Amino acid sequence: MLSKRKKQNTIKEYARHATDTGSAEVQIALLTKQIAALANHLKTHPKDHHSRRGLLMMVGNRRKFLRYLQTENETRYKKLVKKFEIEA
C-alpha cells in the first residue's frame, strides 16, 4: 500500500487541474505505483497467492484505464506509457 503522503504527491504530479483526483492519468499513476510495490513484495514472499491475485486485478484495471485513455486522447496515452515504461 502507498502511504497517504506518496498518494497525495502522485495525485499532485499527474492531476490535470487543482481538484483532479480521479482522471485516467491519476488512476494509472496510482495503480502503477501500487503494482510496483506489490511486485516487490511478491519477490520476497513468492507463496503469497492472495496478494498475487490482487496484483493481477490491479494490472487488469490499469489496462482498462490505458485503453480508455488511448481512445480518448492518444497524446496523453503515449506520454504516460513512455513515462512509466509500460508495454502496451
Question: Can you put this structure into words, describing what you see?
Answer:
The protein has 88 residues and is an all-alpha fold. The protein is built from four helices and no strands. It has helices at residues 4-14, 24-44, 49-72, 74-84.
* Mean pLDDT over the full residue set: 94
Q: Distance between termini? A: 24 Å
Briefly note the structural class of the backbone: mainly alpha
Strand content: under 5%
- Percent helix, as a range, is over 70%
Q: pLDDT under 50 segments (min length 5)?
A: none
Secondary-structure element order, as H and E?
A: HHHH
> If helices are DSSP runs of H or I spanning 4 or more residues, what is the number of helices?
4
Rg over alpha carbons: 14 Å
The largest pleated sheet is described as: none
Q: Compute the number of strand runs.
A: 0
Shape: globular
